[in-house]
Amino acid sequence: MNVTNIIRRAAATVACVLALASCDDEVSQIGNSLIQGEADIRVDSTFQLTGESVATPVFDTRSTTNLLGTIDLPEYGNLSASYVAQLMSASTFPVPDSIGINRIDSVKLTLTVNRGDITGDSVAPQQVTIYRLNRKLPADISSAFNPEGYYNPSSPIGTKSYTLSLLAAKDSTFYNGNSKINISIPLPDEWAKEIALAYKNDPDLFAWPQNFSARFPGIYVKPSFGRGCIANIATTQVRLFYHYTGTAYKTESDGTFKPYEIEVKDSVAIFAVAPETLSSNNIVFKPSESLKARINAGEVVMASPVGYNVRLHFPLREIISTYKKAQGGFSSVNALTIRIPARGIENDGGLGMPPYLLMVRTNDMAEFFAKNKLPDNKTSFWASYSSATGSYSFTGLRDYMISKLESNVDDADEDFTLVPVMIQEEVQDYYGTSTVTSCVPYMTRPTLTIFDLKKARISLTFSTQTIN
Q1: CA-wise closest residue to 32 among 48, 15, 45, 47
Q2: Domain residues for 271?
Q3: Distance between CA atoms of 171 and 181, rounded to whole angstroms?
Q4: Which of 31-35, 138-142, 448-452 has the highest mean pLDDT?
Q5: CB contact at 8 A, 382 and 393
Q6: What global pTM score does this model have?
């Protein structure tokens, strides 16, 4: 049934004609002369969007935050996340010159988790093991990277058991939105002394990340026990602990102060994972039988960070054909939008839905992420999830359609993929206009989403002008 809605206005005014002309100079043929006739504004939503779940291809997993842990859920599957990271000197003078080797007490690696950045059971016991890398990480690292051969599995430098439970609810800091959970892992004292000697012998080694990574290639952070929780590690930092002799004062009976020596313990951050260094997630995913059964039955499911994307058939040729058949003397494309209903799949791990989706031509997807591109509303588009409508809405496809009106549309032009992403925007002016500054694969936490493509709505709005 054709649900095309037609709003007809008789005897169009000059203002209406000029407005139609300004909508799209490339398509409209309306001149500046005064024309009398009828203007139709049409909204056609008869088009059907189809698609299927497809295995996520290899992609770039470099990130400023990293996933750590393992979850095993019947609705989702088994996901294990570790990461490799180059370290960067915290400053060009990381080790105070006043610290002698004999004053160094210990060195610790601290992993910080922001409150709420946890998926799964926070009280589940976990264990993490740290290894030193013995080779420089490859520049083209991806989700298919296997750290085997980059570390010695028989020589861990640190192990720590922990849980990620939040602070007790009765504790006032529980209500502090800035509260964090720190996982502190002791590392060998020998490494602390090696670091201090390396700095004293060659301070320039710490001045540049590329020089430093040649001497200290990095670390491998691996879950070694537990399968109920995954954390998003916000910061990875190495701190050097040392002591020195200080002075304190005690009050004598006559009211005077007498100095005495005390031992003071202090620490300094020497290394950290930073945006300037290479840090990459190693993610292994095995879908559950329940998830595979849904997909085999024809349900359109997305599982991330690795697992399944959604591949769409966007009926561009049909849309253009409908538009051209309905053209009058003059025409203008006003808007082309897609609204895709989506919902989460109930699960025991608290897996939710991605906040943003990228819709990109499948042929362009690898290059899009490899070159750190941004959605351009030409071959790539983005949408945020609306809890009010229960859907993702892509509103910027008008220019894409216009670019194909006078050219041949091939299969690649109708082949798109939905990918979960994280979008960052910056406000550009006084009026609050924002611009997308970053679009990367969504790595904050695992997600599980089902799409109802049968209820997806493609809406084409266009105007025609009939001359009397």
Answers
A1: 15
A2: 66-286
A3: 14
A4: 448-452
A5: no
A6: 0.81
Per DSSP, the three-state class of 201 is helix
Instruction: Output the CA angle 238-71-239, nearest 5 degrees.
Output: 5
Residue with tokens 């399968």: 227
Residue 110 forms part of a structural domain: yes
**Residues 71-80: what's their mean pLDDT?**
95
Residue 132 lies in a domain: yes
Strands (E), 164-318: 180-187, 219-225, 228-251, 257-272, 279-287, 300-304, 308-313
Nearest to 199 by CA among 313, 75, 94: 94
Cα dihedral 275/430/333/331 (nearest 10): -150
| Cα dihedral 340, 345, 349, 355 in deg (nearest 10) | 10
Query: Does the pLDDT value for residue 419 go beyond 90?
Result: yes
For the four alpha carbons of 321, 322, 327 and 332, in that order, the dihedral sign comes to negative
Using alpha carbons, select from 284, 347, 315, 273 the residue that is nearest to residue 44. Answer: 315
Q: For the chain, what is the mean pLDDT?
A: 83
pLDDT confidence of residue 328: 63
Cα atoms found within 13 Å of the Cα of residue 180, Cβ hemisphere only = 13
Contact by Cβ (8 Å): 114, 233: no
pLDDT in tens, 296-305: 999 999 999 9
What domain count does the chain have? Answer: 2
Average pLDDT value for residue range 154-183:
70
Distance between CA 311 and CA 308 in Å, rounded?
9
In a domain, 299, yes or no: no
Q: What is the pLDDT of residues 433-468, one digit of tens each?
A: 778 899 999 988 999 999 999 999 999 998 887 665
DSSP class of residue 167 equals P
**What is the C-alpha separation between 89 and 213, in angstroms, rounded?**
10
Give 171's contacts (C-beta < 8 A, 6+ positions apart): none
Domain boundary among 251, 286, 321: 286
Cβ pair 380, 419 in contact under 8 A = no
DSSP for 86-132? --EESSSS-S-TT--GGGEEEEEEEEEEEEEEEEE-TTS-EEEEEEE
CB under 8 Å to 297, separation ≥6 — which residues?
none
Residue 238: what residue type? Answer: V
